[in-house]
Amino acid sequence: DGLAHTYPSRVTLEDWGRTHENRTLRSITITNGYGRRDKKVIFIDAAFHAREWLTPAAALYAIDQLVVGFELNKELLQDYDWIVLPLVNPDGYTFSRTIDPRWRKNRSPNRLGCHGTDLNRNFAVGWGGASTSKNPCSHEKYCGRAAFSEPESRAVRQIMHHLMATERGILYISIHSHGSWILYPWSYAKIAAKNTQEHAEIAQAGVAAVVNAPFDSSTKYKAKASHELYPAGGTSTDYAYSIGFPLAYTLELPGRRGNATFNFHPPRHLISELVQETWIGLRAMAEKTIEKC
Ligand code: 0X9
Ligand code: ZN
After folding, report:
1. Peptidase M14 domain: from which residue to which, for each copy (predicted)?
2. 252 included as an active-site residue
């Protein structure tokens, strides 16, 4: 809200519905304030999973760099607009921050008195397949009563369809943690995407930029197809790719720095350099995409 107020020519906010606990799902669209209205779009989201605390911070830092740091990054906004949904799962995030730090799902009530759907199993490609559970009490993988049963996954779908209706969506990056991976389709089955080579090349640009980032022990990401890690059905990246985003990635941020392992919950003193490093990777992937597309 503050950025939209301070930079009204370059920032707009949009609401895409409300969660079970009535929190607004709000995206920010960042432009350079002039030029065409039908530019291609880079779509970034974060915090599908409640406990992945570094991810909304990384999304907010990217927003800051594009808006407040506009002068440094304006080439990224020359032919592309960016849309960022920094907190896909605000109910789960709040629950994780206040009650159970290990919580992963959203907080919608289910049968059997259990709560939560794994939002990254709630999309329509391979729904209910690999690495999913139909048990509403499964803490990790409950895929929901149907694909898109949840307001959060519907909001992400709505943004994707909004962008693809005019074929503007080019690059989708969903920020997760942890594992230091850059993953690309397909996720639901052991099938290579048609443009695996292009996915790999853009991912490698991210890997190289982060390794060379000016920090002690910056992250060595590894890039590969999602299914090579483990096949998973119902993910947002597969859905984005299936509806026409030519490039779709899951970015698994690191869970350690040097010898210090923090998994989902980075210590306060590391957050700043971790989000800076993440931005260096995102920017490199965006630059490579812009160069190629
Ligand atoms: O399982 C997930 O939803 C993602 N990993 S996380 O640890 N953040 O939960 C990965 C989704 C896509 N990747 C794979 N199919 N491996
Ligand atoms: Zn995750």
Report:
1. 1-289
2. yes
